[in-house]
């Protein structure tokens, strides 16, 4: 689905901080068919935009230091990054990157929510966000993995006005949909010790769409990635969790075509 605008409070962009930008280009290009476009402006520091069928779908940049973990970051569209950061800090967040202009394309900020998960804010100017979503090779879902669901629900309600709808999944597990004006915009999963290693920090997980999860999992292995959670059926389709060769975690989702 092509996108030209994002309602404030909707995840709109993801990017990868990596220690090996060329390696990331090769891996994700081979997996999803992405081409890479490096920003010409020296001020952009080599920021790379991944394209699929001519549409921007994600970004990547080299980490500021070798010690910085390789990770995907999610950004939520806002009408005013400064005001959103003020709300976030007032609700208990800690600023990671204070609001700053990104050339003429937008204004961004990043914080750690009260449960420890990092999230970005994006106030668009000329760059609205991903131009393609919910298709194979494009962003399909954003999900908060946290150990304190109630604190997270209260925080995101205060910052973005998200409502939470929690549904039992069986075996003592449950899943929470985060909604903006009745529209589901993200998910929330409680990190229990059975399914998440204790050392795994709270984080926003990024899911990319695929046409065939099993085939994509095989491709991850061929390209040097690691399978963390093998292809797993869920009511909406199938998913898998993987790690790229540089250590960045991401998930893949094959939709069954079912709707809410």
TrEMBL record:
It comes from the Bacteria. One of its GO terms (molecular function) is dioxygenase activity. It holds the Pfam family Glyoxalase. InterPro entries: Anthracycline_SecMetBiosynth, Glyas_Bleomycin-R_OHBP_Dase, Glyas_Fos-R_dOase_dom, VOC_core. Residues 10-124, 138-255 form the VOC domain. Keywords: Dioxygenase, Oxidoreductase. The keyword Oxidoreductase applies. This is Glyoxalase/bleomycin resistance protein/dioxygenase.
């Amino acid at each position: 689905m092509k996108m030209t605008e994002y309602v404030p409070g909707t995840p709109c962009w993801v990017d990868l901080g990596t220690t090996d930008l060329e390696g990331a280009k090769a891996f994700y290009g081979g997996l999803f068919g992405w081409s890479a476009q490096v920003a010409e402006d020296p001020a952009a520091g080599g920021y790379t935009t991944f394209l699929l069928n001519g549409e921007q779908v994600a970004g990547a940049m080299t980490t500021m230091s070798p010690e910085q973990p390789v990770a995907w970051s999610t950004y939520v569209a806002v009408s005013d990054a400064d005001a959103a950061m003020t709300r976030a800090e007032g609700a208990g967040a800690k600023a990671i990157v204070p609001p700053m202009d990104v050339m003429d394309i937008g204004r961004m900020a990043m914080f750690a929510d009260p449960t420890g998960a990092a999230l970005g804010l994006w106030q668009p100017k000329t760059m609205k966000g991903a131009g393609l979503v919910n298709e194979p090779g494009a962003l399909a879902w954003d999900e908060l993995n946290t150990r304190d669901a109630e604190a997270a629900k209260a925080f995101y309600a205060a910052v973005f006005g998200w409502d939470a709808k929690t549904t039992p999944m069986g075996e003592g597990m449950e899943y929470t949909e985060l909604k903006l004006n009745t529209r589901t915009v993200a998910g929330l999963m409680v990190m229990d010790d059975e399914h998440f290693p204790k050392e795994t920090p709270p984080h926003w997980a990024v899911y990319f769409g695929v046409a065939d999860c099993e085939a994509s999992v095989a491709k991850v292995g061929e390209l040097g990635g690691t399978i963390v959670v093998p292809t797993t059926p869920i009511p909406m389709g199938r998913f898998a969790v993987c790690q790229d060769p540089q250590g960045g975690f991401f998930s893949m989702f094959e939709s069954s075509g079912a709707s809410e």
